[in-house]
Structure formats: structure tokens, C-alpha cells
Amino acid sequence: MMRTKTNYMVPALVILLAGCSGTSPDDEQNTVVSVVPNQLNATSDVVNATDESTQTQQNPIEDGEGYEDFMLPRFQINEDNYRALLNQAFEVYFGTAYDQRLPTNHMQRLVSGAAIDHREEVDGFATTHFTTFACSNGGTVEQRLVAGISPVISYGFEADNCQYRGDLVSGQFDLGGFRDTSHYDIALQNFKVDFGVSDGLSAHGMYRRFTTFTGGYGGNPSDWSEHWRTKSLDYTISYLGSDLAIENASTLGWYGYVRREKSSNGDFWLYRAHMEGEFTMQGTFSSGATIDVMVVEPFTQEYRVNVSADYRHGAPYSTPPTPHFSSGNLLLIADDGTTAQLRPSSHVANHVDVTLTNYLGSDNQQTFTLPWSVFSSAMRLRDKTLEFPMR
Questions:
Q1: Which helix (H) or strand (E) holds 276?
Q2: How many CB atoms sit inside 10 A of residue 61's CB?
Q3: For 304-331, what is each residue's pLDDT tens digit?
Q4: Is the peptide bond before 25 cis (omega within 30 degrees of 0)?
Q5: Residue 81, CA distances (Å) to 23, 49, 71, 365 in order
């Protein structure tokens, strides 16, 4: 009997990548460049993934008389998109994935002019002052300030369709501490900003405002580190046809020079870096697939650099270098069960090993060794010059 061969093909899946990423010529054959849907941080370097959207698997016919070649949908995490997915994940951990309109400043900047209403509520030793301001378009911003034995205990704002330049702002914004303005907690409830016909962002949850690389973090004048922290933060943004959704982000990413050390061996700056946490992400860059992201083992790095004569009274550099972590384990899991696992390489210095596993099992793995520099732009902490509302 003649054995027959039949091909079955499902519709191709076109993979469009958009997540902010950097690439390196060290691994050109796997290069994927993409764009974060972030108005200020956007770049024009866009390369679509290969249009090869199916994979051939051989399936024996049950009666043993022949076989079929059939076409499976492209794995959601594959050799063409894993670098873009990892870059997007690092951007979430270090804050660059978030648009500048995620507020970092006092919301009085939304309004100008005198208050149109004021009232007070007294609860024991604390008095809450509610002051309402009118926006240029007829919307409002209400400031809530709680005063007690200390001059100010806490404060926050609630905007209701307030026009600010070209943006329309709504939602609640609360600050966890008044005096500590370098790294206070910011809590958002139903916060959103519309900045185009179909462009906008929304956020609900907590994040911690970064400090600057100028010393003084936590009251330590020798600490030149910068931090980005989130807790149960949900965030979505749409911009120019690209989308990004981040759900339940509880993350911490930081690096920098944490102290100066003097000993008989010399004068040094101690550099440390750290990354941990988990979240879920989805967007144009993942072709709509939901990707669970988690740090299985915290990423850490520590080393010392000599203090040169030029910097004996300051940090060795105005901006510390991005990390080349020496330990850690990052895992990405897609809807279809495919995974990408990133670990610092044990056999090549300043490199990582990325292992891709598909849903056919551990026998179907690919491993890529890449330099940390591939991810350096994604690990550059959220630009400290970004502020909203602006001065």
C-alpha cells in the first residue's frame, strides 16, 4: 500500500512586537527590536518578527499505514520573540515600562487660581482639610490634607475630568508621607489619563517614587542607589496602536553605590544591585498572549571600585552602571505553557543563559547565551527627569 502524506495548516499567527528593548550585535541571528508604548520613551527602531508562523510536527497515523505532517501554531514564547519579552519584563522591574504620566509630583500643579470650596472634618486629634479647585475645562481637583499633632500627617488629591495641558486627568492620588519627598509611597485608585482620541493610561495600586543618584537615600549621604518598587499595581496604556497591560505587579529593582568603605587595602565604593517580584503582562508585543513573570531566585550583584582622587568627596560616577547580575533566576510562562528561563551564565562571564521550553516537554528545549548588555537599556532605571504634573 502506498503511504500518503497530508499537510494541514492552521491560519498563520502574525507576531507584532512592541515592548521597549535593546539589542546587541553579539547575537544578530536572533535579534528582535521592539518599542514600548510610551510616548516619551518611544523609539523608531521597530523590527517585526519573522513571518514564519507555524512549526511542523510529525504525527504517526494510528493504523501504522502512513503519517501526516500537520502545522501547529507558533509557540507563544519562541526563538524570535523571547528577547523582546525579556526586555519588556526587565523594563517593568526597573520602571521604564511606565509612561511619564504616572504621577510623581504634588497634584496642585494641575490647577491654578484660588480655591472654590473648603471644608473640614475633625476626628480626635486629626483634622482633615478638603479644598476644591476648578480646572480650566470645568473639571475639579480636591486636595485632602490631614493635620494633627504633627503639622501634616498625610495628604492626597482626587481629580474629576481635570484638563491639564493636552491631558484629561481623573482618579485618586495619595501620598504615604509628607516629609520624606525623596522616596515616599504613592497610592492610586482608579487613576487615568486620556491624552488622545484612543490613547491613554490607567493605574490602580501602589508604587514608590524613585530617589535620584545624588546621595542621601534613607538619610545616608553615601548612598547613591536608586530604587523602583511596586505593590499590587495594575497598569494599562494604549499609544499609537500599541498596548501594554501589567497586572498585580509587586516588584523591586534597584542598583547603585550604597556606601564608601575605607580599609588598609584602600578606599572603595560598594556597588550593589537587586531585583525581585512578580507580575503578569500582556500586549501588542506578545500578540495578545498573557505572560506570567516571576523571579524564582532574587537577582543580586556586589562589587567594589576604587575611589579615585577626583571623586573623594562624591560618588565615582553620576549614574552607576546597569547590573550584570551574578545570581538569580527569572521565569516567563505563556498561556500555551511555553517558558523562557534566564539565569546568569556559569561558563561565560557577564553573560546569561536563556532556556526556552515548549509544551511538548523538556526534550524540546533551546538554550541561548547572551551578554548582559542585550538588556542594559531595559534595566536603566526610570528616568529621574520624568515628572507629572510638570513644573
A1: strand 266-283
A2: 12
A3: 988 766 665 555 655 688 999 999 999 9
A4: no
A5: 12, 7, 19, 15
The pTM of the full predicted model, rounded to 2 decimals, is: 0.76
Helix, strand, coil: what percent of the chain each, to 5? 10, 45, 45
* DSSP calls for 215-265: S-GGG-TT-EEEEEEEEEEEEEEEETTEEEEEEEEEEEEEEEEEEEEEETT
Instruction: Give the model confidence (pLDDT) of 149-169 as tens digits.
Output: 666 667 789 999 998 888 999
Cβ contact 97:91 at 8 Å: yes
Q: Which of 76, 96, 90 has its CA nearest to residue 295?
A: 90
Residue 75 Cα distances to 17, 64, 195, 370, angstroms: 14, 28, 35, 21
Q: Report residue 63 as a C-alpha cell.
A: 493504523
Q: Which amino acid is at 281?
A: M
* Amino acid at the residue 42: A
Residues 302-312: b if buried by 16+ CB within 10 A, e if exposed? eeeeebeeeee
Q: 102 with 203: CB under 8 angstroms?
A: yes
Distances 272 to 21, 325, 354, 373 between C-alpha atoms, Å: 23, 10, 23, 17
